[in-house]
């Protein structure tokens, strides 16, 4: 995960949120998680809580 990967993730986050979408990274690989945590942008990609019924569907 280098600066190009980070730039890609941030661009997708920007485009998605501009269109009213929630952008998440469900279970990112450890290297991706480490880099986004180090940069402090992990909170941007946190998964929103879902009701139990939605998770089971």
TrEMBL record:
<protein>
    <submittedName>
        <fullName>Anti-anti-sigma regulatory factor</fullName>
    </submittedName>
</protein>
<dbReference type="InterPro" id="IPR036513">
    <property type="entry name" value="STAS_dom_sf"/>
</dbReference>
<feature type="domain" description="STAS">
    <location>
        <begin position="1"/>
        <end position="57"/>
    </location>
</feature>
<dbReference type="InterPro" id="IPR002645">
    <property type="entry name" value="STAS_dom"/>
</dbReference>
């Amino acid at each position: 995960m280098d600066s190009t990967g980070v730039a890609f993730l941030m661009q997708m986050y920007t485009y998605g949120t501009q269109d009213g979408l929630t952008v998440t990274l469900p279970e990112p690989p450890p290297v991706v998680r480490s880099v986004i945590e180090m940069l402090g942008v992990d909170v941007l990609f946190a998964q929103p809580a879902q009701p139990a019924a939605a998770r089971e569907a």
